[in-house]
Specification:
The protein has 6 helices and 6 strands. The chain is of the alpha+beta class. Strands 1-2-3-4-6-5 form a 6-stranded mixed sheet. Strand 3 and strand 4 form a beta hairpin. It starts with a helix and ends with a helix.
Amino acid sequence: MTYCRHSPIDEIMRMPEVEERVHRYQENEERAEHQIVRCATIHGDLIVLDMRREPMIYATNQFVVYGLYPEIKLSLHVLKDVSPGYVRFALGHSIFNRGAKVDAGAVMLEFGGGGHKVAAGALVREAEADSVLDRIVTRVSKN
């Protein structure tokens, strides 16, 4: 963030770390989009991206899903956590279709997590993940 505050964008884009990440995104763009489509299920205004069974998650911008599915108002990402035996849930509002009324932080708080109105997460035991997923989908679909 220091660079963003004090350096021109051209200089930031020439930084080796930034160049490497841009290259990785460009290299994986098509694979990432195919992966999103393959792992997506739609439940009304909610898209669920269940990546738990993916051997590799391709690097992409977290908001690509909203470009691929512009009608969607909310996304729920479901991922294996780095801690064995846990699953991470991330619920967020679309950056394009801003009509969602759901308070993501309140929803995730119900499952031991938290966050803000438009973006929140929870970490749950793997054994409970399918049940939690169903409950989140039901909870969010009611709104």
